[in-house]
Amino acid sequence: MAPPRQRSEKMKITGYSDKISVRPGETIQFMVNCELPRYKVEIVRLICGDLNPAGPGVKEQVVQTAANTSYPGRKQTIEAGSYVTIPDRPLLGQLNSFTFQVMLWPTTPDTGTQVIASKWRDRNKSGFAVIIQDGNLACSWVTARAMSRFSARKKTPRSAVVFRSGEL
Questions:
Q1: Where are the beta strands (DSSP E) in the chain?
Q2: CA–CA separation, 29 vs 141, rounded Å?
């Protein structure tokens, strides 16, 4: 396994897609940040993504498409500390339970407490928070009757999907 990336190192190319997967004939968009003059693209069908040295290894198949070519690099920054505020709506106050889902890629999990999402209701002193704290993913929820907290025992992986349903 490669050593963890040092903070001083920078990835020269990063990106994401607007969908996790597509079927033949469907459209997918890729947003790419590249600090190099050019980069080459190959669209692949991922057959196996196992990186475990004892496992079968990564297996992929190139998909023949016009998108498989070279593109000019273009720096597109993501500002650290970006956030969104979603205005409160009366419908949110009428919920008795909820399910929250997030897919994240924590790039600085050891830099202190970071709030992924939170919501608080003053009228009944209840709410929830999904945070990264001490490098671990944690979920907390508070109701008028109790406070609960879940914390992952392992360090936050580079990508994670969090599901939590709770009574408000």
A1: 13-17, 30-34, 38-40, 44-49, 58-62, 70-72, 97-104, 114-121, 126-133, 136-142, 147-151, 160-167
A2: 36
Binning pLDDT at 50, 70 and 90, where does residue 12 land? confident
Structure tokens at 92: 């949110």
Which of the two residues, 13 and 97, has the higher pLDDT score? 13
Q: DSSP character for 69?
A: S
Q: What does pTM read for this prediction?
A: 0.46
Give the whole-angstrom CA distance, residue 11 versus residue 5.
9
Q: Among all chains, which residue has been given the structure tokens 């003059």?
A: 37
Contacts of 166 (CB under 8 A, 6+ apart): 97, 98, 128, 141, 143, 148
Helix ranges (H only) for 53-93 are 90-93
Q: Residue 120: pLDDT above 60?
A: yes
Structure tokens at 12: 């020269």
